[in-house]
Amino acid sequence: MTYEFRLADLGEGVAEGEIVRWLVRAGDTVRSDQPLVEVMTDKVTAELPSPVSGLVVRLCGEEGKVVPVGSVLVEILTEASAPATPAGTAPVTELPPSAPAAPASGVVFNPELPEAPPPTGSRRRATPAARRRARELDLEVPSIDGSGPGGRIRESDVLAAAESYTAAGPLVERVPLRGMRRVIAERLMDAQRNTAPYTLVDEVDFTELVGLRERVQPLAEKSGTRMTFLPFVLAALGMTLRRFPRFNARHDPESGDLLVYQQQHFAIAVHTEEGLVVPVIRNAETRNLMELAREVERVAALARNGRLAHEDLEGGTFSVSSVGSAGSLHGTPVLNSPQVAVLGIHRIAVRPAVRDGQVVPRRMAHLSLTLDHRYIDGFEGAQFLDSLRQLLEDPAVMLFSFSELRES
Asked: What is the secondary structure of 147-208 as a DSSP string?
């Protein structure tokens, strides 16, 4: 029996997925629940497990290929009938004994026979890793000599060919736009096409907040939490949004209406090895400073470990991008559409400032606020940013208690 494992719907509105990485090869024996492939959608990245045990006879598509929901990903030869087919997958079909399953290359797979050399003039056979490396190095597969069985080209053959070409001139690395970078690119282009963005910038004196954080940090560490500047900014942001509720909103792409939310769901940008992801801290308006710090740590750890669930990325109402730790002095954050506002936090550094007629060293930083001009005018945006600046410069007026830090 051959079981066709298909790409099921991984989330509401998901129509396609990208094959990020194969976790098995043709000829592998797999057990039920063993991960077969890592797939990325515009919502989440997930490893898809096999519902059956058997022999992998075909992988349908190379890494980097985008396939629609319902497409066959893997064909598995089983000894017994496959289990009931879940919704969105294909039924099990029986192959005649004389017709074993064929791999994607069109060559009949038989684990008991040695790999035959390719016929003269046919397409050069290469492992998926070799083809991927050749694309990255902008090398043509047919020009590479293979050292594998039957002349099959391995990744080491590609690297050896690249070294031999180095003396002839510089190599150009081809970096495919796929995976997380592809998703980011599509969202950025969507934001640029469908919004009217503008950015306001203000300079903020963080001196008092730096001192407050230094006093709070030992109390937070006793409960195993690292207190960064971000929870303080989120607390001040929450208070400012209560005064300017229209900033805590999303636009309806179909009607154009502005949807203003009472709950504050903060989407915070986190840099990972795969690119930028924006997990959501939900109901921030109900959380105290310590709870905000813990939640920032939790979602950031999930993001960096690639463990974010679909719901961790959905429903944000206001975005925050903190790039100051990377050394950024100033920037213009891009809207996370359909949200209408995003705040950028930049490097805190000692700079000269005038206080009471004297030039003194202060901990200064820029805040940049990008807004959708269709819904929020510049005057209101300037008022919002100034209100936020006042809270950050005088954090003692923030309406929260530090008793939970001492009691935790």
From this structure: -SGGGPBPHHHHHHHHHHHHTTS---------THHHHHHHHHHHHHHH--EEEEEEEEE-HH
